[in-house]
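Check this:
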Amino acid sequence: MGDGAEHGWVWGGKLKAGKVDVERLLVQVPLVRPGQELRPILEAHLKTKVRPGDIAFISEKVVAITQGRVVGMWQITPRPLANFLSRFVRKTPHGMGVRQPVVMEMAMREAGPARIVVAAVVGGLTRAIGRSGDFYRIAGRKVAAIDGPNRHTVRPYGYYVILAPEEPEKVAEEIAGILGVPAAVVDCNDLGSEVLGASSGVDIAFVRNALHGNPMGQGHQRTPMGVLRVAAN
């Protein structure tokens, strides 16, 4: 384990967030299935490990799966407009995203076709002058948080579209109540991290900076939750 990590944790590394050194301590959990309740998962794998002063975090994917916000790619028939628009989306280092017609279709269902068309047009125009990210800024956070089929994702979810969780702020408050420490629902990848929902007492900028580099991983690690802990001097 190394670096003072406790038994039962998966060491996620230490880094400076603001003026303090922060330990990222992760916990591995069994594969989460649609319809499972989040409370028993947290009580079994995380509650006994947290300390006062910790901030708990959980991947938005796990929250979305427990809410049943997953759709098999074979269940999605992209409309012609989704097929058309997806051809103009640039592939990113993180993956195909809405370049996949099934993901574009789900983005249109989440945000509405008109908003996605405007996002695609504006994003295409501003990308031509060297500016990036306008598609997702206009489409909204629920679209940006969609995870499409990806062969690196733990099975069977590499063949599913995982939507953004519903009411992440409310979920974060519920998690804080279960664990007894502040909590955040986060969306992390190798390009950055975002806080989708946070309970009272959470410094969102601190959590975002502390999860830089995505210690949870993107694939088969199955470490979608953990805590941030200020390191002892």
